[in-house]
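Anyone? Bumping this.
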Amino acid sequence: MSEPPGVVCRECPDRAFVNVRGDVGDPRLRDAVAQVAGVDLPREPGTWNQADRSRAYWLGPDEWLLVVEGDDGLEVEGRLRSALDGHFSVVDVTGTQVHKELSGPDVGKVLQKSSPYDFHPRHFPPGRCAQTVFAKATALVAAREDGAFDIVFRRSYADYFMRWLADAAAEYGYRLD
Amino acid sequence: MFRIHCPHCREARSEEEFSYAGEAHIPRPVDPSSLSDSEWGEYLHTRTNPRGPHREMWVHTAGCRRYFNVLRDTVSYKILAVYPVGEMPPEQGEA
């Protein structure tokens, strides 16, 4: 009981997830997101921005995942729709997403075991995010300033994913908060 | 196992993340109903199957989910070029 766990997984509940698509060159899109969620859409591939309670993850050249803590997905979608004008897509995907935070000294090894992607800090420093193959399924992984990782995956994989993580992290000591 | 450079994510990713999407540059006939069975069959099934450089489509399934074109040598498996959908490959080794 005395050994500190090598990997800690924490649930991040109570978040709104909204998928946003549109032309990043269109200032109306960027302004609307900044106004509603208070975060800038990242333009650089594979990066994410955080501001206050909001995060914006780059998913593709015209697609982002917006995560707002303590908010309701449908309401965020509604506010974005009212603020937006032109050609865009805004979809509340809260019901399909699970957000976990992985931390601990051995978290890198568990990521390495789970994915072909190179999550080493020299390649994947804080501020980077990537959608990739994870545990033979897919997940969005983001590197944070504090050395922890945010992992977003589909709710339908949740049971399988949590079992995979518990198994992969068992040898380092695993704690689920 | 390939390492494929995704032009949208702008980095090389493992082949596991991608799916092959068939030969590139096969335009869908403008008016399919005016085609004979053999012409339609030609469009659906006939492929060039070259020995050497092959122009093909790939999709970054587990990543950004976007399509792009690849010029790949079917003998050496070497990827000669990656270029956007709607463009023709760079001059080298025209298939």
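Late reply, but here is one note on the structure posted above: Chain A has a mean pLDDT of 95.
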